[in-house]
Amino acid sequence: MGEGTGGDEILHHEATKTDILTHTMHVEDDPTVPAITFRSIFLGCGLSIFGGVLSGIYYFKPQTIVLTPVFLAVMSFLLGEAMSLGIPRKGAVGRFLNPFPFNKKEHLMIIIMANAASISALGIEVIAATRLYYGHRLSDGVSIFLLLSGQFLGYGIAGLMRKTLVYPKNMLWPSTIPVISMLETLHRRLPETRKPLKVFLIVFACIFCWEIIPEWICPILTGVSVFCLANQHSTTFTYIFGGATGDEGLGLFSLCLDWQYISGGYSPLFYPMDSLISQGIGVCLCMIVFCAVFFTNTWDALKYPFLGQVILSNTSSAGNPVQWQQEKAIGPNNRINMTAVDELGLPNFSSSNVLNLMMQNMCTSAAVVHMVLWYRRELMATVSYLDPRGLRNFRQFPEKVRRMFQRSDVPEENKDYYDPHYALMRAYKPAPTWWFGLVLIASVVVALVILYTSDATLPWWGFLVAAILGWVLIAILGSLQAITGVAYVVQSMVQMIGGYLQPGDPVANMYFSLYGYNALLQGVLLSQDLKMSQYGHLAPRITFFAQMLGTFIGACFNYVMANSIITNQFATLRTVQGTNIWSGQQAQQFNGQAVAFGGLPHQLFSVGSKYEWVTLATLPGFLVPFVPWLAHKRWPNAGFDNIITPLILYYIVYLNVGINSSIMSYFIIGFASQYWLRKYRPNVFVRYNYLVSAALDGGTSVIVFILSFAVAGAGGPAVPFPIYWGNNANGNLDRCAYANG
Fold first, then answer.
1. 601 and 501 inside one domain
2. In its keyword annotation, does this UniProt entry include Chaperone (predicted)?
3. What is the distance between the alpha carbons of residues 265 and 188, in angstroms, rounded to a whole number?
4. Domains in the chain: how many in total?
5. Domain housing 278
6. Pairwise CA distance, residues 425 & 431, whole Å
7. Is residue 661 domain-shared with residue 535, that is, in the same domain?
8. pLDDT tens-digit profile of 596-638?
């Protein structure tokens, strides 16, 4: 699409999802372009090994680093182009190794394979926690199958839900659009792509160079707070206006100039406008609610940190938080010892953490009602293949399916429902539903065998409840993520449910979380990649092959690295602080949650307990979505259909963890893109918005990866920049007063 095209005719300010799908990404395809080549297999396997090794290492690092799809896309493009230009094409060997220029479908296959391998398997948490805290080591074979069963369970469930999670137009999966926009710009060798490619390269180079400054040289740019600079001695100012350091404050009116934290892998440039509005409402309420609960000393809030996830002792006091000694509460049979708990006292949480648990439950119940009210058709599709009426004509079923997928277009009555790219995909042989059903059955069988051969203490019925819970979470929260672009983190809620089913057993709770919550994570990953392959027109069977192979490679190398690190750094990983190179913080948190949420649910969360509203909050969650729904029925043109209540509830506790100084910059950029640019410069929005998003994320990912090994301690001793006014390394980076409690 050229810049001379009438932008207002292409995309007006009330643009629908179809506008984005047809004008940002080309609805055209050449099915003859090959995806499976020596080059794609070689690079796909190589980057899968790379991703599996690094994600296994990163799990035990003090800093969190994620290999994003954009980073993998940049790396695979450089390597693919190098092979295309560097390997001769003459002769039989040359034609085999390098038959033609590196193409988009090869590139997309590599990304999907490597991305599947680069997500650290949740089973690593179980393996690490059982070795570090329970003295039990699973055999190599059991460990590998444990990882695979946890991942493929989610794959099987999500694969059966493609009619809900992938095919409909409403399931936008916004985070995939920048990747596809980048691929089209890099591979469409046409005159009209020269300027977009130039823009991409300029933005990529600029952010690559810029990020060195806030990441290493001048970290104060992570969060510039005028209020903290004006008053550097008030902890109240720190709680409200600070946020450049983890768990420091809410970041109100802070200005962040570090794209790594503005985006965090979820760029504000790709979120739909209704999602941004709901996020913004939630964040404003978050600041009000957190301050109100803390300063009114609800749940003894003033005794504990303003923000924090650590489980705390009741011996804590203001300014002196004391961690609850969970290892003393576990008996020799790996179950909770109530006598020891009576001596220690029940564990406690910071007020922000309690609110987080409350809103997770409330958000989940609201999500169920929201989806039923607004997306009934999509939800019905999650179980459509179970309709017994379809069995009456079972003999005709394969022929009906074959005829349906031979049609090159979508039926006229469904054109407003399905993604327009779905019509192009029907030219390819589909990945049959029974393939995913077989993956699901195999994962269930393997999981049950593991549970009864590894002293997991989770009974078969507990596993089935976890799997069903994963099914429901994928259908509800997976669909919401597809619509809004927001990834919902509800692991604590899953662990609490598992605790109620089998109280007092932390080990069983870890396995329940593995098969309940991990199913959601892996199902979302598979669905997101399926949507990416649909946008990029990669054959479904090739996508299936790439995902399964990448996951297998990633799990194997995840385990090899994790097992080696645990063996060689056992004592370090057991310490609370770790070192600047190795840390067991993630395993510690996972185990701590299993002990508290899984071991003591009745004592902590049942009616009459200190934190009873964590569970009671579920009930009003069922009612909240009716408010905008009924308002929309009464005033259909007032915009109430743009309010996503579960998203608002989720963002009411969004600032409970991490670096929050980026929140104002995030919304300024997001609204500038999705409102101003889309309304007043629609052609620029269509052509450059998602491309620039990919360039910003790509350049940032590459330089952060380099800096992690060069100066941040990921590959050896850290090399800190000298301390000066812009690098307050001995305190909060934004120079807010340090608040320990």
1. yes
2. no
3. 25
4. 2
5. 199-309+610-711
6. 11
7. no
8. 888 899 999 999 999 999 999 999 999 999 999 999 999 998 8
